[in-house]
Amino acid sequence: MAGYFGVLVSDPWLQNQFTQVELRSLKSSFMAMRRESSGGLKLAELPEKMSRLKHVGENLTEQERASFLQESYQNLDVDVDFELFLRVYLKLQALATERRGSGAKNASAFLKSPTSTLLHTISESEKASYVAHINNYLAEDEFLKKYLPIDPATNDLFEIAKDGVLICKLINVAVPGTIDERAINTKRVLNPWERNENHTLCLNSAKAIGCTVVNIGTQDFIEGRRHLVLGVISQIIKIQLLADLNLKKTPQLVELVDDSKDVEELMSLPPEKILLRWMNFQLRKGGYSRTVTNFSSDVKDAEAYAHLLNVLAPEHANPSTLTVKDPLERAKLVLEHADKMGCKRYLTAKDIVDGSPNLNLAFVAYLPAQALRLQAIVPMFTRNGLSTQTKQISFLETLPDDAQISREERVFRFWLNSMANSSYIDNVFEDLRNGWILLETLDKVSPGIVNWKIASKPPIKMPFRKVENCNQVVKIGKQLKFSLVNIAGNDIVQGNKKLILAYLWQLMRYNMLQLLKNLRFHSHGKEITDADILEWANSKVRNSGSQSRTDSFKDKSLSDGIFFLELLSAVQPRSVNWSLVTKGLSEEEKKMNATYIISIARKLGCSIFLLPEDIIEVNQKMMLTLTASIMYWNLKQPAEERPCGSSDSETGSILDTSSNSTMDDTASESSIDDNSSN
């Protein structure tokens, strides 16, 4: 179990208990549970959440699982990492075998089955809620309206999703402009190739907005695997609902904190944490003494909801809501209150008392925006409990607002999350400070380079242990020949933004160059440089019959997008519809070309995280990653499937001649000066 899972499971005994396929499935399930718990999974939550796992979910009741954990562990309030999750799973599995008399033979057969680890069931309530969301937001879509509304009582959702169009459109609802809809294949009857292109575009675009799609492929959508399709839809809708929970879009949120230092902390929080803070802010005003820490067990009795809605819309309050004894009846009254406010439900009373984390989060996420809308209609109420005045939050203007840093942080965050590390990254400046995720990523990029014996695994309470981890991160960076002048481990611990971005760029670039180098027909073991990639791109475009050429990845002529469209057409002639391409003369035309380039590249299979602005502004680093991603995709294709004039020997000759190029290969490395000037 070396390499990939050696990082996730460092204990040799645990490695020997599972096959790689089982570990991957359990890892996916574990990460889903962590996301549902807003990034922090407690031991006390496992009895409920493990109900979805086959064997321990089917053969043990939630009470049996809870009783066993209470007997086995003294403290159930500890955070669960993946190894502890696996140990609990094995113990519960043994208990289930003992209780049900399955016998060792059956337990062993279960462990060896690559498809039996997870009980692939779906929540009908979640499906119905997401179908209602889709019916509402996509009702007027010209292509989809002939299929809508979808009946939630059927499996029509999964049938309609099989051509990839619906999920592409849903991604654009969540994050407008992510996919250039000109790139979506929307014929009434698609051939298998066109369907596969849509799903490839969908998955790469989902990654680019922050979805976790590890171990999900295009075939899963084509075959309509319900739990995987619903999982992706769930993440997309969650991103949409939480999109406004930041200070830029809802500056009134600044009233949740007292000073500028707290504001910076608030800005670094993931949206779920901000939502919880907003909810508790309202509850304290309503006299509610408990603190809500999750969208599951803490809201099951519906008391928190009753107090919350009384604060947001007191004119609709029903005194019976707080006096009724039955949680289900209270939940029904809460939803009646929400209906009077005009809120979308997203859940039923039973979903509340069952503690459905996804649906509860969706319900609460809708409340701040709805309260603001009502405030605009009926100003006598401050319905989200936040002032509509902005004079008390003027100091927000004094906080740094570096758009370039924000864009680069987003690129590196999504790239790190695509690496299937043990923790999901919400903010690179905060979540990398203990060094662990960086060590995991380094070990994936250069297997075996990390000395895990001297690394400390989270949670890390002693500050010097974090510094030790980060010192090793810097030491490895120097081994890999990163430019790390004036960067020390403590800079990462302190969250130095420019230095962290400088390191991450070089790590991402190194990974990209290694992927290219490791292709079998590539470079004969020679290091690949930026010059090699540039010469490859120019050669491809030249051999396709075009006169276009670029001198560097900071060539301002790249801003119109024409060169990249010609490159994409050179590697896959049918990929670009030239009737849709503009001349790129105005800013609007440049943006149209840029969004088309990104969508076409993702549709081919390139995993890229840049934005149209990066092309328009000719962000040198993003130009390199885009070109390298296209090159990597092209060189992975079988030789017979590549366009004429594209051969392995040609690639080798390009590398042989350009590796000695006088082009400054360090020009695109992210030094401190680059970060400030790019």
From TrEMBL:
CDD domains per UniProt: CH_AtFIM_like_rpt1 (cd21293), CH_AtFIM_like_rpt3 (cd21299)
UniProt keyword Repeat present: yes
GO annotation (BP), single: actin filament bundle assembly
Domain of life the protein comes from: Eukaryota
A GO-annotated cellular component: actin filament
Compartments (UniProt record): Cytoplasm, Cytoskeleton
Region described as Disordered: 640-678
GO molecular function, one term: actin filament binding
Biased composition (Polar residues): 646-678
Subunit structure: Interacts with F-actin.
Protein name as catalogued: Fimbrin-2
